UniProtKB/TrEMBL annotation:
This is Beta-lactamase-related domain-containing protein. Residues 1-22 form the signal peptide. It holds the Pfam family Beta-lactamase. Residues 43-397 form the Beta-lactamase-related domain. It comes from Coccomyxa subellipsoidea.
Amino acid sequence: MGNHAGVVRLMVAYALLEIALTASVPANYAKEANAALQFMTGLAESRLIGGAVAVQKAGQLVWSKGFGYASEELDVPLEDDHIYPIGSNTKFYTAVAIYQLHEKGLLNVSDAVNGYIDPADFGLDGPWCPKVHGQEELGCQEPTFKQLLQMSSGILPSDNMACGYPNTSWTPSDWLWPYRMNALNTTYGDASGATGNWLDGTASAADLLRFQELMKAPLLFAPGSQYCYCNTNFNLAGYVVERLTNMTFTNYLNEFILKPANLTNTYYWIGGQGMEPLGIRKHVVSIPGYTTTFKQGASGAPAFTVVNRIPWLEMDLSAFAGAAGAMFSDTFDLLKWYNLFMTQPEVIGLSKESIAALTQPLERIPIPGLSAFFAQGVVVEPLSSKGKKLLYTGGIWGFLAHIEYWVNSSDPSKSDAVIFFSNLNPIIPADSNGACAVQSLQNSSTISLEASACTDSPGGADMTNYVTTHLAQIFNITGNYSSS
Ligand SMILES: *[C@@H]1O[C@H](CO)[C@@H](O)[C@H](O)[C@H]1NC(C)=O
Ligand SMILES: *[C@@H]1O[C@H](CO)[C@@H](O)[C@H](O)[C@H]1NC(C)=O
Ligand SMILES: *[C@@H]1O[C@H](CO)[C@@H](O)[C@H](O)[C@H]1NC(C)=O
Ligand SMILES: *[C@@H]1O[C@H](CO)[C@@H](O)[C@H](O)[C@H]1NC(C)=O
Ligand SMILES: *[C@@H]1O[C@H](CO)[C@@H](O)[C@H](O)[C@H]1NC(C)=O
Ligand SMILES: *[C@@H]1O[C@H](CO)[C@@H](O)[C@H](O)[C@H]1NC(C)=O
Ligand SMILES: *[C@@H]1O[C@H](CO)[C@@H](O)[C@H](O)[C@H]1NC(C)=O
Ligand SMILES: *[C@@H]1O[C@H](CO)[C@@H](O)[C@H](O)[C@H]1NC(C)=O
Ligand SMILES: *[C@@H]1O[C@H](CO)[C@@H](O)[C@H](O)[C@H]1NC(C)=O
């Protein structure tokens, strides 16, 4: 489909939607909603995004909208309540599940994980005894649950990611090379999922970990000493939930989190239902994702190309991403989850102490390149106003799901939030001028290359920051809740 025709169609669609929109926006936010609409429409028209946004001010949903296409092939527009894979946002729910077990006395988050696993589940001959690479003489170094949830356990990443960033410099001479998931190509299939589905929907967290063989690998560093973003931490947490409750992670989430929290549009992987390759089934699952790339064209304008539609929806996410990334949701439910977490934790069986622990930033070990810190399953940015912002970006092939949630410290039920989900996951080359081009829409036709929109984070996270930062500005979300 030519982009040009697409733009024309989009403009017609927006003209119609704008009328409908006015009715649902609180009158006192009409001006902001209009500015946000212009900003997002411009991005969508230039084919820089497709997705859904939602904005909350002082606890009230003040604006939401879908942009671009759910399916280009079928010419279906995206709507604000479409359901997306939310990738790593799953980790927040997993962390909550561990704290629920802590509150029930089934474990203590300060305990070493060793006491809660069956070595046979991972093909180990004896008790799990992880040693730090290069410091084997120290003997077994046992991470705690808290260290898993804080990404400080030292467990090796399973894919070609070095603590959250792709590491292209790894070679077979690096000691960790044999432990990488890619080395298991032939069984697993390539990362696009084209030949995935290796466990046919019946995998448990233990199957995943056994398959990855990471429980046999050395640790990258002593538990608690460094930060390393790595899915394995949460897969192991998910395994313990399954083992202690004798439930599948899916059933556990449904019974103890999704039902009590009334998250009716949130799912753990549901086994391919409704995932026709080009299908759109609102309220079931899901929309096609696209990977995209930008190149700066000769005229200085960013040229945008859809590289491919992601075929992975046919693959089993519970087996691949598991408790680290296999959930689906829409913008409204993710917002509902954060609101409930901050204001009614008793509904999901958590005390105020657990909420405080889960959102306690690990300031001792900063996340490289961010002014925010990992807490437990969620990232926390302390604000100069002494408040804090919770945030997360989930990225899974073809999709991004980003939330920023400013906690109103005088009254959490009056918190602000901006959410942006996208079914375009831009592949943004890391070079400074290469492709991090974002149209500046306030002045309609200007194109600018904004360095601030181009962090060193590949995979599209900079796009989510760009969008949410602008929307926060438009809606005057400052994070300043001081009453003085
Ligand atoms: C934060 O909550 C307080 C107490 O309810 C409220 O007065 C104030 O307006 C809220 N702040 C913002 C920026 O919404
Ligand atoms: C959990 O363990 C910590 C450290 O050993 C201890 O201080 C705390 O009291 C324990 N909590 C519970 C609920 O047992
Ligand atoms: C990538 O791996 C190499 C070799 O192990 C290491 O020296 C380098 O620090 C890693 N880069 C990043 C960004 O982690
Ligand atoms: C994995 O498979 C791809 C092709 O599908 C190949 O290019 C790559 O070298 C393989 N990686 C490893 C570590 O075997
Ligand atoms: C675990 O659940 C399965 C099936 O739900 C049941 O057959 C089994 O007895 C349970 N085991 C324990 C220890 O509760
Ligand atoms: C649960 O949420 C749905 C909307 O997703 C709403 O219609 C329903 O009233 C809620 N039920 C309860 C018990 O809060
Ligand atoms: C927050 O707002 C108050 C007035 O409401 C102001 O006095 C204070 O300087 C602001 N703080 C910051 C960090 O902007
Ligand atoms: C838009 O144009 C005005 C006036 O020329 C300028 O001050 C402003 O910086 C421009 N905004 C952007 C985002 O380019
Ligand atoms: C933005 O919000 C702050 C409080 O956070 C308030 O003092 C200021 O007047 C607001 N600005 C506008 C333009 O509404």
